[in-house]
What does this fold into?
Amino acid sequence: MLTPIKPASAGRRLNAGSLIALGLAALTMGLGFWQWQRGLEKQAILQAVEAQNRQAQILSLGQDLPWQLGRPATDLDRKVFDLKGQWLPESTVYLDNRLLNGRPGVHILTALLLPDQSLVWVNRGWAPKPPGLEHDRARELIKGGPHRPTNQPVLIRAVGLATDLQRLQLSRQADDLRQGALWQNFDWSAAAGLVASSSQAKTIQPERVWPAIFWQTSDSSDGLVRQVPKPPDDAVDKHRGYALQWWLMAVAALVFAWRLARPHSKA
It folds into this structure.
């Protein structure tokens, strides 16, 4: 009596198609985790903004919070400060391609020298500027003329931000990133060079620079628009939604990888 032959057990073997699908699954899984992390970062910012709104305490930089070498920027993040000092007008720079309510313009930053000889960089506000460099407005900003403050003592209120809000840079060439006083992003090293070349450099200790950008909120009657950035209220939900979409794509890619793997027989 003949015994029927049982079919060999079927398995699957990876091929080029399934390997590509597995790579796509790994990529989309990673993008999902990145979006989820971005959501957590935005949630932390929103919580810091809420804490700032509840906090009545206003600190005096250099007094209530003395300068300290190696102080982390997070010590300053979203806290409200009174800044008393003297502007260094020659240090004024303009960060290009900054939108405010959909309008293109520049953020205007100037260094402020505090009584303890420490230095803070203050985002004094926003002013309109058309995109591009081929117009009179751009040429004025490149020369560094408009919106310079006087070097008289001032007392302003500002909010510290641990991030300097870098924009995507398509080049690493200094000539592309900085056209005179018109910069694509804030550069701490180049900013230190501006301070060192100023007429008041002899009274400045260049190592005593606070590691954050301070966004002025008090009015100085200079025509600049002041608005401290914060994520929109639905930012966290959007990032979580994007994360779930990427993870669903990862699951789909894993299914494709399994389907594309060629069946093979085991002896």
Notes: The CA atoms of residues 121 and 213 lie 5 Å apart. The two ends are 23 Å apart (CA to CA). Helices lie at 16-54, 136-143, 174-177, 188-196, 235-260.
